[in-house]
Amino acid sequence: MTDITVVGAGGEYMESVVVVSWHKTPGEYVAAGELVVTVETAKAATEIEAPVSGILADIRAQIGEEVAIGTVLGTIRDGTVESAPATAAPTAAAVPAAPAAPALVPVAPPVATARPTRINASPLARRIAASRGIDLSAIVPSSPSGRIKLRDVEAVDRAREAPERHSVASGPTSPAPSISLTRRGSGSRTPFVFLHGFGADGFSWQPLLATLGADHAAVLVDLPGHGRSPALSNAGSFEDLASAVAQALTETGIGECHLVGHSLGGGVAIALAETGRVALRSLTLIAPAGLGPEIDGDFLDGFCRATRAESLRPWLLRLFADPSIVSPGYVQATLKARGEDHRRAQTTLADRLFPDGTQAWEMRAALRRVAVAQKIIWGECDRIIPMRHALGAGPETAIHLLPHVGHMPHVEAPATVARLILQNARCAGRNGAGAT
């Protein structure tokens, strides 16, 4: 079997694509170099050719589905040339009727009640709409091309929230700012909820998700003051952040999950687990905060001060055992992901959670009270939080120390981390928490 994948489509920093059309059906013969599937990025359509000759065995990414870069779209199995004549004629006849380019523009439905098979929207608009529970089919695009863009989604969101803001204005308290959630994967089983580390965002999990595969449902959380989530002005503890995340998960209808937290997100994950507001099947912590007082205060200060690539790069190097990961593109992407407002919000958050370069919040006792399958994963070369903090977990917590790995195991060793996360989830199923 040979996988059909898309890598780096639409530019170096694309995280996902949307499948526009398949030009072959399972069982059809396809020649090496022949157009087999078209995907769409935020910028343009990309045509993917068959890497080898053979029979299209299966299609794993359906039309309209958004998938991460590197995801297997389908597979091609070995096939004899004799298989080609049986499918060559229909394929040739279909090409003039359905060329790739017009697939980007939806065709008007034949009757008023019919709906197009795929909504023409940018990947970014799809992500934001999904995270905010907005139905794309109800949006009238402002673009002459008929494509729904981010501005259209945001306009609907503003109109929808206007009466809500008015109705709560007279109440005693205001609701917490909305937290951005991004869904990935097509699995229908209990989702994995991912909480990122300080200064990162939900898309920092991309290397891990590419390994985990689209068969597992994933929810990427942007913590307050990170990614697309607004700052939480009164956040002064892991519990405050956990409360905001719990509210967002509840409002989105996520009542149970496998929880994965890295660094800052690890401390928040412990706090969220203890609240009981979301039913946990398993808890996986990656170099979590909250299990000891030490932390690299110089890193926090330097990262928060940095506003240029030259000043940011030395601090990013501390995150990894492999310095080649911190390429110029990686540094620029990190800068682009953090605007001035977020930089200030993160500086304030770091001062409250880690005053004077010390972890002020103790989560070891809380972790021991969490009665679900637990794993802790730590890089032996971590220079941000000492791996010996893992010893502060309870006696039933499995600890995995990864050699030649720094503070970002999910980036430096994604295959190992993915395997351990799934292993923990399966363990939860065997213990009666339910299958994954």
From TrEMBL:
InterPro entries: 2-oxoA_DH_lipoyl-BS, AB_hydrolase_1, AB_hydrolase_fold, Biotin_lipoyl, E3-bd_dom_sf, PSBD, Single_hybrid_motif. Signal peptide: none annotated. Its cofactor is (R)-lipoate. Residues 158-167 have a biased composition (Basic and acidic residues). Residues 120-157 form the Peripheral subunit-binding (PSBD) domain. Residues 1-77 form the Lipoyl-binding domain. It holds the Pfam family Abhydrolase_6. Keywords: Lipoyl, Pyruvate, Transferase. CDD domains: lipoyl_domain. The keyword Transferase applies. GO terms for molecular function: acyltransferase activity. Residues 170-186 have a biased composition (Polar residues). Residues 158-186 are annotated as: Disordered. Belongs to the 2-oxoacid dehydrogenase family. This is Pyruvate dehydrogenase E2 component (Dihydrolipoamide acetyltransferase). It comes from Ancylobacter rudongensis.
